[in-house]
TrEMBL record:
Assembly and oligomerization: Homohexamer.
Domain of life: Bacteria
Pathway(s) it belongs to: Cofactor biosynthesis; coenzyme A biosynthesis; CoA from (R)-pantothenate: step 4/5
Native source species: Flagellimonas aequoris
The protein's name: Phosphopantetheine adenylyltransferase
Binding-site positions, substrate: S9, K41, T73, R87
UniProt EC number: 2.7.7.3
């Protein structure tokens, strides 16, 4: 079984994430969406909300599993038997950042990182931009899946 881990904070899940996940499930037998827990980070959405956003968005996709984890991603991959880490790339800056992480992960383990380019119409979307739009009362509904629409 080809199992991949798609790690992130997903604060919140965006259409960019959604795009990578939908395309990733065509490449792997199972895609584990792993919400990282970082006690030092201030999140807009609770862990429960972020989990619900993802589970609802992919409730009809049996190849997707949603979990939470702490610690190093490669250690969690070993724990669950994932041989691949899936990452999305929006731009050259993402590539440089992700390349360094992928090389480090490869040095620490046998886990391969697979990169997918975000679809052209979604390459500008990031969770930080979505959070800014929400904080400022803007219409963020075109940036996130329907499951993320919340009332403030």
């Amino acid at each position: 079984m080809r199992r991949a881990l798609f790690p992130g904070s997903f604060d919140p899940l965006t259409l960019g994430h959604y795009d990578i996940i939908k395309r990733g499930i065509t490449l792997f037998d199972e895609l584990v969406i792993a919400i990282g827990i970082n006690a030092d980070k201030k999140y807009m959405f609770s862990l429960e909300e972020r989990t619900k956003f993802i589970e609802e968005a992919f409730k009809d996709e049996p190849k997707i599993k949603v979990v939470t984890y702490k610690g190093m991603t490669v250690d969690f991959c070993k724990e669950i038997g994932a041989e691949f880490i899936l990452r999305g790339l929006r731009n050259p800056a993402d590539f440089e950042f992700e390349k360094a992480i992928a090389h480090t992960n490869r040095k620490l383990s046998e886990i391969e990182t697979v990169f997918l380019l975000t679809s052209s119409g979604k390459s500008y979307i990031s969770s930080s931009i979505v959070r800014d739009v929400i904080r400022n009362g803007g219409d963020y509904t075109g940036l996130v899946p329907d499951t993320v629409v919340v009332n403030f």
